[in-house]
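Now for one record:
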Amino acid sequence: MNKHELAWNYMKQKESFEVTEVANAVDMDIETFRKSVKRLEAKGFVTVVSGPGVAGRPFIYKVNASNDAEPQFGKGGTKGSRRVERKGKTGQQLIWNSLRINRVATISMIVAVTQVSARTVQRYLHSLEKAAYVTCRRPDRKNRSNEDRVGDEGAWMLKRETGPKAPILRRGEGFWDQNQQTFYPFIETGGNK
């Protein structure tokens, strides 16, 4: 049980409480706990019952008995005694991170680094290419024997690096760029799918 959960249990047992009282009881930084209480207030878990909220005369809070739900604390929070974990980074985010770091990468290289399936990587890269985020240097396969082709793979180069958040694919339309808050539609080309 983390300190926020301890504080919540403490608050539920009290008729009313002050931020400093609870923070001291669970050995938590007062400002950190004050922010936590403000979030709880915004979500309707606690209410101010008195006090102007100034030095020497702090807000007095109480837990809302009408709210049956329990707040979530920490990474993913909890539901009852069961911990609910948030999912990690999406496959698109992992692929994007790999492109931003390497600038030039092959599908097999991205798969090895991200553990995302080759099919997912290939689809995302082809979509990024249609929206002009990346370009692919495909190997020249003309006049080469089958033995020369083994291991040949296209190299994907990042052209439009807009920031740390991966562009979100909108199937059949383009990408929503979270960094620039801009939609980039697919560019129609004669030969591409």
About this structure: The chain has a mean pLDDT of 83. Residues 30-42 form the longest helix (13 residues). The beta strands are 46-50, 60-63, 78-79, 82-83, 104-105, 134-137, 155-158, 168-170, 174-177, 182-185. The CA atoms of residues 70 and 80 lie 8 Å apart.
